[in-house]
Request: fold
Amino acid sequence: MLTTSSRSLTKIMITAAAGAMAAAGMAAPASAAQAPRTDGTNVIAEYETVTTWVQGNVRIGPSTDYRIAYTVAANQNLIAVCWLEGAMVTANGYTHNKWVYLSDGNYIWGGLLKGDEVGNVGSHCW
Reply:
C-alpha cells in the first residue's frame, strides 16, 4: 500500500513529466496519461489527457471566483483526473457548469477543452 508521501511523490513526478512534455510541445504518452492512482478515498482513477481548443485560465477551484493558477494556450495538453459540477460559466458560445480537475490540483472549465463539455474525461469526481 502506498503511503501519503509516496502517493504525493508519484503525483509530483507525473505532473512534472507532463509539464516538461507540454512545455516542449509534446503530448504525454498513453502510459503516463493513464497511470492509475489512489486518492484519499481509496478510489482508483486513471489520468487522461485533455487538450485546450482556445487560450484560457486554470483556476484553484471550480469557479471563476477562484484565483487563476496559470493560463494555458490553445492546443495545450493537460493531465485530467475527473470532472465535476461547479460554477456556471458562459464563454466562447457555451454555457455550462462542468469543470475538470487536473492532476496538479487545479481546475479548468470544460468549455475550454476539445471534445464534449468535460473534454471527454470519463471519470466523475466523487
User: Anything to note?
Assistant: The helical segments are 4-23, 30-33. The CA atoms of residues 31 and 45 lie 14 Å apart.
